[in-house]
Amino acid sequence: MRLILLGAPGAGKGTQGVRLADHYGVAHVASGDILREHVAEGTPLGKRVAAYVAEGELVPDDLVLAVIGRAVVAAMETGGYLLDGFPRTLAQAKQAYAAATQGDIAADAVLFLDVPDEVAVERLVDRSATSGRSDDASIDVIRHRLEVFHSQTYPLLDFYRQDGRLVTIDAGAPPDEVFDGIVRTLDERLGA
Questions:
Q1: Which backbone phi and psi does 59 adopt, to 5 degrees?
Q2: pTM (two decimals)
Q3: Which SS3 state, helix, strand or coil, does residue 81 take?
Q4: Is the dihedral of CA 158, 99, 12, 47 positive or negative?
Q5: Distance CA 188, CA 143 (A)
Q6: pLDDT at position 85, please?
Q7: Active-site residue numbers?
Q8: What gap in Å lies between CA 76 and CA 126, rounded to an integer?
């Protein structure tokens, strides 16, 4: 199974991504985790990424595509993938789709975790108290991240809706209900 998981910051991508990858036996490829690892390790890529992450900005396409492309190819060798938080822009989606169709590794479905902004803000504020993540450090950064999502990532929904792969999930419910709804929908749609 090959899945893309989209949603605003605080929509539950990390929570659902891990569970879904485990449920379907595929690799969980989380772009944010991979980029944060590079930042924490102080790699050359991490140094370039750090400033973008701290400001709540999207990391430039060339940096993200280089890292994620390698991870997806490796994931396909083990049976599939769940892409969590990638692509984030229409340009990334188009580039990734072109590469994926050439390699016959395009996603079977694109899950959009739909959550109201105020629920996302509340979740991120709660998470900041325990995670120490710099991109959850303040309400201003959180609201900016949501603005960036609406302006740069939200247009992807039409892109994936046009080819029939978009599946919208109400992510405002408790995590177990969201997970059950995703699995039920995917099983019906893909015969998983």
A1: -75, 140
A2: 0.84
A3: strand
A4: negative
A5: 35
A6: 83
A7: 13, 88, 127, 133, 145
A8: 35
Number of Cα atoms under 13 Å in the Cβ half of residue 83: 32
Give the E-state strand segments of 19-105 in sequence order. 27-30, 81-84
Q: Cβ distance 168 to 114 under 8 Å?
A: yes
Map residue 138 onto helix, strand or coil. coil
Cα 170 from Cα 182, distance rounded (Å): 9
Question: Hunting for tokens 């996302």 — which residue is that?
Answer: 120
CB 111 within 8 A of CB 182: yes
Are the C-beta atoms of residues 78 and 27 closer than 8 Å to each other?
yes
Q: Which two tokens stand for residue 51?
A: 């400033």
Q: Structure tokens of 12?
A: 């539950």
Burial of 151 (0-12, 13-18, 19+ CB in 10 A): exposed
Residue with tokens 């994931």: 75
Is the Cβ–Cβ distance between 169 and 111 less than 8 Å?
yes
pLDDT in tens, the chain (192 residues): 999 999 999 999 989 999 999 999 999 999 888 888 888 999 888 888 888 877 778 788 888 887 788 788 888 888 899 999 889 889 889 988 888 888 788 899 999 999 999 999 999 988 887 876 666 668 888 999 999 999 999 999 999 999 899 999 999 999 999 999 999 999 999 886
